[in-house]
Amino acid sequence: MKKFEGLPREIIALRVSKEIEDNSYVNLGIGIPTLVSNWLEGRDVILQSEIGMLKTGSLAEGADIDQDLINASCQPVLEVPGTVYFDISESFAMIRGGHVDVTVMGAFQVNESGDFASWMNPSRGLNGVGNIGGSMDLAAGAKRLFIAMEHETNNGMPKIVRELTYPATARKKVNIIFTDLAVIEVTPKGLLLKEIYPGLTVEDIQSVTEPTLLIAPDLKEIEL
To answer: Has this prediction a pTM greater than 0.70?
Structure first.
C-alpha cells in the first residue's frame, strides 16, 4: 500500500492548536499532542497536566529545563504566570468532574463511530501489556476529544478503520481527527472529510482510510 508524505508532527500540532478556543481548559496527551503547547504562547488557553500542574507552559529547552516540571510525556515544560500545583486526587477530580474542555490524544486506531484505541498495541508482542495511564478518564471526562496522529502506520496501513482490532480506550467520544493528511470530523452520519493535504486528492485520502468518507461541500486544503 502506498504511503503518502504529509505534514510533520509539529505542524499537525499547529493545526490542532487553531481548533482550540480561547478560555479553554485543555489536557494534552502523550506524543504529538504535547507539541500543541508550543503553539499556544500568548493565548488564553489553560493547560492541565494530570500529574498535578495547571497553566503548563510550552516545552522547555536548554537552561530553562527543570526535571521537576514535566508533562505527560515526561518532557520538561515551562511555568507561566499563575502556574499552580496539586496532588493526583485533585487532578482527577478536575478530569472526572467534566472540567476539561478539550483533551488532545494520540491513537493507534480510530473508527467512524468515534471509538479509539490508544493504550495497547498487540503488534508489539507484549502479551497484553499496555499503558492506560489517565487516558480513559481523560477521554470520558472531556467535553470534546481531538485525536492527533499520523494517518497511516509505519508500514502504510490505515489507522482510521471500520472496526477497532486493538483494545478500546473509549467509545463514541472522538469529535475531530487531525492527521498528517487530513482533518476529519466524526458525525452521526459518518466521517466528514473537511481538509486535505495540498496536492492530494479525495481518492488518495480514501485509499488509506477504511471507512467510506463523506466529503464536505467546502472541502479545502489544511488551514494553517
So the answer is: yes
The active-site residue out of 5, 41, 50, 163 is 50
Give the separation between CA 172 and CA 127, rounded to whole angstroms: 27
Tell me the per-residue pLDDT of 41-92, one tens digit each, with 9 for 90 and over. 889 999 998 888 999 999 999 989 998 888 878 889 999 999 999 998 999 9
* Domain extent for 122: 9-216
Based on the residue annotation, tell me whether 223 is a catalytic residue of this protein. Answer: no
What lies within 8 Å, CB to CB, of 125 at 6+ separation is none
What's the distance, Cα to Cα, between the start and end of the chain in Å? 28
Instruction: Output the domain CATH number for residue 79.
Output: 3.40.1080.10
In a domain, 100, yes or no: yes
Whether residue 3 is contained in a domain is answered as no
Number of domains in the chain: 1
